[in-house]
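Researcher: Here's a chain I'd like modeled. Treat it as a single chain, no partners, no ligands.
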Amino acid sequence: MASSMNASAESTRNETEERLLDAALTLFASKGFAATSVREIIEATGVTRPVLYYYCDSKQDLFERVVRWKHDDAYKELDATISATRGVANRLQAIIRGTFAFCAADPRVPQLMFQTSFGPVVSELAEFLQAIAEIRFGIVANVMLEAIDSGELHGGDAHSLALLFCSIMDHHANALSRMPNPEHKLTPELADALVDAFLYGVSTGRRKTPQIPETL
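Model: Modeled as a single isolated chain. Structure tokens:
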């Protein structure tokens, strides 16, 4: 019966589905996928086992639905923003500002993704997580490729530049989203400063040195 939570039903998700996804997100983010039991999810949600399996086929299926619940719309919005934006600096600012706002809005999400992606390998999730990671990386790499083709960027291939940019962005998102009041740390100003650092370096004098929060 898991089809009741497929993509076509996203817009009509009911209160029970929302509670199930929210409770699972909290547990997966705090304990990890392997350490979270189906029983804990049932107890946290206040549903019966048959109800949980009405909405998902397994714990793995529930995990994947939680991730898609939080990421699908965000990636669509990001892709649309990039398509409507011109210039590599503006596009990279849009990417990192969007990422920071996304992480600050619900710190459980980056905690879940970084813990799962960089912690012990969970074999049953590996293929799914790789596919999710490739969506955003593909958006960034395409921005780099178009900037290279237009002459805005020099000295590197699109894949390497995308990896460097994502490393800068993700380190800050991971570290700062774990601190109190991440919305005061993952700011547009920091996002823009990091784009400047990526594009122009920190010692050329062409842009200001990034103002990294003292708590980092």
